[in-house]
């Protein structure tokens, strides 16, 4: 099989949620020297975007979205160690979770993988994380950054609820707050009082490094 055929196969089989075939193709791609990033950005993510488009058009329903997501997750299980393998020096600590009411986690997991690859220690709180849980875990791990992911317009207001909870607990200024997720925008992030917003995983890593550097140099002055 050519690399193009493997990528096309990954796209097609993710779209129909054929997890065993997706796994086989990922393994075949790796054996043939196809890069993990290429499989991710040229096939798997575009396929999930098409899944979303079909859902919006009413051609797909929740079960189809679910099996496509499972196929993607199977691929990520194989790719995770390769994407995170950079030998980067420890750089900071990150507490991350998908906000209350929201169970989407593929995008969050991808951001975590990239953060780990860049040298962050990541504490992943999972999905449907309540504001009190964020507060508790920030107190426990004392991270440089807390990241909130939201993937639904109906769960984005949880950013503000989380920030309010941090304020109430007296720890808002002790931690940098980053937000992200498909429907989130810079304007929305600014409106809720977040310190940073990124549209994708690699921008999230770059921004996390910048925000930590800024905070550390401000403290040093
Ligand atoms: Co749902 N879903 N879903 N879904 N789902 C979306 C998000 C939707 C856009 C589909 C659509 O209509 N086009 C739509 C939301 C519309 C809206 O509110 N604007 C939607 C809906 C409506 C729903 C339900 C309400 C459907 C229903 O029940 N009627 C329901 C809600 C359940 C809930 O959470 N309470 C639901 C359920 C599901 C499944 C469970 C079936 C499944 C999720 C499985 C899982 O995650 N384990 C699912 C899926 C798979 C999707 C789509 C198709 C794919 C999501 C995905 O993984 N994308 C999605 C359509 C789409 O996104 N095009 C859709 C790939 C991923 C790599 O991208 O998630 O954007 P993304 O993550 C990016 C960036 O956002 C960013 O970096 C990531 C990597 O580059 N990022 C950050 C993420 N977090 C960040 C944090 C940061 C910075 C950057 O800093 C902290």
Bound molecules: CO-5-methoxybenzimidazolylcobamide
Structural domains: how many:
2
Mean pLDDT, all residues = 95
Let me know the CATH homologous superfamily of the largest domain.
Answer: Cobalamin-binding domain
Major beta sheet summary: 5 strands, parallel
Helix vs. strand class: alpha/beta
Annotation, overall tally of beta strands: 5
Contiguous low-pLDDT stretches (5 residues minimum) are none
CA radius of gyration is 18 Å
Helix content: 55-70%
What is the N-to-C succession of helices and strands?
HHHHEHEHEHEHEH
Description:
The chain has helices at residues 3-15, 19-31, 36-57, 62-83, 106-118, 131-141, 158-168, 186-192, 201-220, and strands at 92-98, 120-124, 145-149, 176-180, 196-197. The protein has 221 residues and is of the alpha/beta class. Strands 2-1-3-4-5 form a five-stranded parallel β-sheet, with helices on both faces. Helix 5 (106-118) links the parallel strand 1 (92-98) and strand 2 (120-124).
List descriptors.
alpha/beta, Methyltransferase, Methionine Synthase (B12-binding Domains), Chain A, domain 1, Rossmann fold, 5-stranded parallel beta sheet
Structure, briefly:
It contains nine helices and five strands; from the N terminus they run ααααβαβαβαβαβα.
Secondary structure: elements and pairs:
Elements lengths: L2 H13 L3 H13 L4 H22 L4 H22 L8 E7 L7 H13 L1 E5 L6 H11 L3 E5 L8 H11 L7 E5 L5 H7 L3 E2 L3 H20 L1
Parallel strand pairs: 1-2, 1-3, 3-4, 4-5
Helix pairs in contact: 1-2, 1-3, 2-4, 3-4, 4-5, 5-9, 6-7
């Amino acid at each position: 099989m050519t690399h193009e055929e493997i990528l096309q196969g990954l796209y097609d089989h993710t779209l129909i949620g054929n997890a065993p075939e997706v796994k086989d193709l990922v393994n075949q791609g790796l054996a043939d020297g196809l890069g993990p990033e290429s499989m991710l950005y040229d096939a798997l993510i575009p396929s999930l975007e098409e899944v979303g488009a079909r859902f919006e058009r009413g051609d797909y329903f929740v079960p189809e979205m679910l099996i496509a997501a499972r196929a993607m997750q199977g691929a990520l299980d194989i790719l995770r160690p390769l994407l995170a393998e950079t030998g980067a020096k420890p750089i900071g600590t990150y507490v991350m979770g998908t906000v209350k009411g929201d169970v989407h986690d593929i995008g969050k997991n991808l951001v975590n993988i990239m953060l780990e690859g860049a040298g962050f220690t990541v504490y992943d709180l999972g999905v449907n994380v309540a504001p009190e849980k964020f507060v508790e875990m920030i107190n426990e791990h004392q991270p440089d950054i807390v990241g909130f992911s939201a993937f639904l317009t109906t769960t984005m207001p949880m950013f503000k609820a989380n920030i309010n909870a941090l304020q109430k607990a007296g720890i808002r200024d002790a931690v940098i707050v980053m937000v992200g997720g498909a429907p989130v925008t810079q304007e929305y992030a600014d409106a809720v009082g977040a310190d940073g917003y990124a549209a994708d995983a690699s921008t999230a890593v770059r921004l996390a490094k910048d925000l930590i550097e800024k905070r550390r140099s401000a403290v040093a002055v």
